[in-house]
Amino acid sequence: MQGPADNLIVKLTFDSKFAKMIEFNQRGRVHQSDDASRRCAGCRIDPKKTIDMAFAFQPIVDTNLGETFAHEALVRGLNGEPANSVLAQVNEENRYHFDQRCRTLAIAQAAALNMSSFLSINFMPNAVYQPEACIRSTLESAEKHSFPTDRIIFETVEGENIISRNHLVNIFRAYRRFGFKTAIDDFGAGYSGLTLLADFQPDFIKLDMELVRGIDSDSVRQSIVRGVLTMCRDLGVQIIAEGVETKEERDFFASNGIILMQGYFFAKPALRAMPKRTADWLASTP
Questions:
Q1: pTM, rounded to two decimals
Q2: From which domain of life does this come (predicted)?
Q3: Which of 63, 66, 90, 241 is the most exposed place for a label (fewest CB within 10 A)?
Q4: Is residue 43 a contact partner of residue 133, using CB atoms and an 8 Å limit?
């Protein structure tokens, strides 16, 4: 059994609202298994092997207010190449470093743009071996760039290659303890579904685009989404309609009380910039 002298308590205070306690051993490291140590070493990859990337930002709109609620950080190549060109370079060797760098770079670029909305960052659950340890670089980046941690949303999708649902739930719970918002992406797309929602209720779920597309003229999709909306209201979870491309889709969600939306109807992602509103968005703003 460890005594009080075996551990040091390091208090990380990054703003007046959030003071988080992380327990380190006397050498300043979180207790790790051999496997965890290997993964931690993966975050210290040779700089020459770092994947070049940038971020494009796409707004999540509050349609009631006609304002931007959040920006999702979408990974791109340095010159705006598609996400797949970057993600194809991720492997077992660089996965942990890539996930950490995505977080810190997204925060740095958002801060450089003086972003005042929420910032939504995608993360890879399989690159998080211990949430309390793996979140340190995010907190350090937020402090360095003076970006409030209570304006960060962490979103992910429950994919088929996830280590386990329990692992994902533990990550979400840890992030909530740190004061971050959480979101389940692509809700309704196979793996992201009701079982995960039963185990953890995030702040947001993002409806899968396949449910959104053409919903104004599809009674089956309408019934499914109304059912999800009723359930989420009971659970205190907000819905974000992702992939809205037409006025008719926007109108359906608005008429059913879903006010947070994202998609080309409002704005396309902008590389290293906050995108301008589309003509459709401007015309529909109250």
A1: 0.84
A2: Bacteria
A3: 66
A4: no
Residue type present at position 42: G
Q: Give the residue from 184, 190, 115 showing the smallest Cα distance to 145.
A: 115
Write the CATH number of the domain with boundaries 4-284. 3.20.20.450
DSSP 131-184: HHHHTHHHHHHHHHTT--GGGEEEEE---TT-S-HHHHHHHHHHHHHTT-EEEE
As a whole number of angstroms, the distance between CA 238 and CA 240 comes to: 7
- For a pLDDT cut of 90, what percent of the chain falls above it? 69
Instruction: Indicate the pairing of strand 270-271 with strand 54-62.
Output: antiparallel
> CA 211 to CA 161: how far, in whole Å?
23
**Beta bridge partner(s), residue 76:** 54
132 residue type, one letter: E
- Identify the pLDDT of residue 8: 34
pLDDT tens, residue by residue, 22-69: 343 333 333 444 455 544 555 565 555 789 999 999 999 999 999 999
Tokens 């009080």 — which residue? Answer: 4
